[in-house]
Amino acid sequence: MANPKIMASARTLTSEGLGERLGLFLLITPAILWLGLLVILPHVEIGILSLSQRIAARVYTIGFGNYFEFLSEPIYWHTFARTALLSILVTAITLVISFPVALYIAKFAVGKSKPILFLMCLIPFWASELVRTLGWMMLLREAGVVSFLLQWAGIAGKPVEMLYSDGSLVLGLVYGGMLFMIVPLTNALESLENAQIEAGYDLGGTNFTVLRKIIIPHAMPGIVAGAIIVFMLTVGNFVTPVMLGGKNGLWFTEQIYSQFITRFNWPQGSAFGFMLLLLSTGIVWLGLRLTGQGFSETLRRT
Questions:
Q1: Of 48, 62, 243, 298, which has fewest CB within 10 angstroms of its CB?
Q2: d(C-alpha 6, C-alpha 43), whole Å
Q3: Which element (helix H / strand E) includes 54?
Q4: pLDDT 10s digits, 269-297
Q5: Does domain 66-117+162-301 have CATH number 1.10.3720.10?
Q6: pLDDT digits over 257-273, tens only?
Q7: How far is CA 276 from CA 23, 116, 144, 235, 273, in A?
């Protein structure tokens, strides 16, 4: 006959295990629903719709004609390549600018200065992206503040138009991505012990050597995470390229918008959207391979 105490303990352990599994299930259910309904399912539908070819009025067949259309039209793949290259450039510039800021916040700011610096980085995002972009338009237009200061300083002899150029486009995108680079970099650098940096100097290392061999390798997960976030936000941006780049901005999201909204060609727009998804996935995968990082390690370290 079984011992009643052992049976009671077994029932208690079983109920505790069921309770833990139920709690875990309830915890991950919202994430699963969010991923399934708002991420995976729409992308599956876009992938299927991108393979639809119209052969007559309301008559469709399955094929790769939409992708062949992308390859056969120079304006499409030229815009696609331009978007990829400028997004990589924006990510690199954002990293170069944000790294010293994150290093200062993580290792040099003390007391109340650290939250104040974080707040200063966050203040621009209290306004929407549209308002921030309009602010840049007011600064960079021909009758704007920057043009006035250049004329007042004698650098320019007449009003200078800085809008609707690659420079203004890159400036607006870098400005919009800095916070998303600073936060993961700061989190990664805060875990670096000061003793490691001091040991590097004690062993005869210069500032550049300590930065290259100690600080940057330790911050690599934060660099990768920040670069992924900034690149994804940049390549999928729509408002900033349209407003700061103008008609000559040639951003791929404009082509997607044009196919869906202007031409009502949803299969072609879906193919373009799927191409943008493949571009983002490929660049992120390549960046992880080149830096020797993985998704799990990057998320754990940041």
A1: 62
A2: 52
A3: strand 52-56
A4: 999 999 998 888 888 888 788 777 665 55
A5: yes
A6: 999 888 888 889 999 99
A7: 38, 38, 35, 8, 5
Alpha-carbon radius of gyration of the chain: 26
Max intra-chain CA distance, the chain: 102
Distance, CA of 184 to CA of 55 (rounded, Å): 49
Cβ(152)–Cβ(66) below 8 Å: no
Task: Report how far apart, in Å, the C-alpha atoms of 51 and of each of 62, 254, 288 are.
Answer: 5, 21, 30
How far is 157 from 54, CA to CA, in rounded Å? 56
Q: H/E element holding 62?
A: strand 59-62
Task: Give domain limits for the chain.
Answer: 66-117+162-301
Distance CA 72, CA 70 (A): 6
pTM above 0.85, yes or no: no
Please report which helix (H) or strand (E) contains residue 198, including its range. Answer: helix 194-202
Residues 185, 199: contact at Cβ < 8 Å? no
> What per-residue confidence (pLDDT) applies to 302?
47
